[in-house]
Amino acid sequence: MVCHLRKALYAGAALINLALSQVTHAADRLPVIPAEQYSAEQKQAVAEYEAVRKAHIFGPFEVMLHSPAMMTNAREVGDYMKAGSAIPRNLAELAILYIAKDWSQDYVWFQHVPLALKAGLSQSHVDALGIGQKPANMSDDEDATYAFVNELVRNRQVSDQTFDRIKGRFGNKGVVDLTSLTAFYVHLSMQLNVAKFKLPQGAAGIPRHAEVGKP
């Protein structure tokens, strides 16, 4: 009896130690670098970021600062997506929320829900995307954008019909820009997921409702 109890205690202790080590490891994966510990390259990357965006680095850029040149290149792509893309902001935010949901990326969701609503995406569309459902009553442009991103993510390809819808509305530039937007936010979601980047305390991530299959 004592022998069995001792084995059970050892097993329990081992599980606790494993859990604690996993929590510690997750917290230390790619920690936010304090400014006083920046290398010369990191200082330059942050200075360039702040000069362009008039804000301090955050979220995925804090993760990517461990590779400063990578962070700078990603920032430049993000700057283009905001200022030079042929895809209107409301459609871009629809695509971003789709990707955040698909990658279970709470931080991207938390950051972009307010931006999506500000850009004109309806609350009902946001709610549908949050449970993995195609929003109802979309405009033609919203429907074409959803179809393009959904097919690209699910099928690794888009149909001729879906391609032609985006090309007809936004030209070849729009096709390239929407493809690039999809890839860029998959990239950011990957960075955050690998780092196990945490939401700010009290922030709301993706709703944890019952999933609805995507069409």
TrEMBL record:
Keyword Electron transport attached: no
InterPro entries: AhpD-like (IPR029032)
Keywords: Signal
Signal peptide: 1-26
Signal in keyword set: yes
Protein name: Carboxymuconolactone decarboxylase family protein
